[in-house]
Amino acid sequence: MAKYFYPAIFTEEKDGNITVYFPDLEGCSTYGHDIIDALAMAGDSLSLMLYDMEEDNDPIPEPTPLQDLKVKKGSFASYISVDTMEYRKKFHNRAVKKTLSVPEWLNESATAAGLNFSQILQEGLKQALNIA
């Protein structure tokens, strides 16, 4: 779970679409109807690829520096930045039920105070993991 910067190669096709591929990540490619769409789709594609690699404990390759890429005429290269933690927060936010134990006196005091156990646990876990 990290922030990544990978180079992408953008090519305008004859039909006006812009194809995007990531030379360091086999199978990671997409397209957009214009440059704005292509940039958005590139971020989505890269996030999903890196998320899957993290989940499968696959090694994540080092990104190639832009100046080391061979780019054909009519194409250009640019870095795409993604954060897989933000991807998780956005797309994997389903609640998971957990059973926990607290002393009876603490449960009674917290219930009387109207505290939300789930919210407090989430906040505590985020703090313990240094997640904003």
β-strand percent reads: 15-25%
Judged by helices, strands and strand pairing, the structural class is alpha+beta
The total of beta strands comes to 4
DSSP helix fraction:
25-40%
Over the alpha carbons, how many angstroms does the gyration radius reach? Answer: 21 Å
Question: Could you please describe the fold and organization of this structure?
Answer:
It is built from 4 helices and 4 strands. It has helices at 35-55, 84-91, 104-112, 117-128, and strands at residues 3-12, 18-21, 29-32, 75-83. By secondary structure, the protein is an alpha+beta fold. The longest helix is centred in the middle third of the chain and has 21 residues, at 35-55.
List the helices and strands and how they pair.
Elements: E1 3-12, E2 18-21, E3 29-32, H1 35-55, E4 75-83, H2 84-91, H3 104-112, H4 117-128
Antiparallel strand pairs: 1-2, 1-4, 2-3
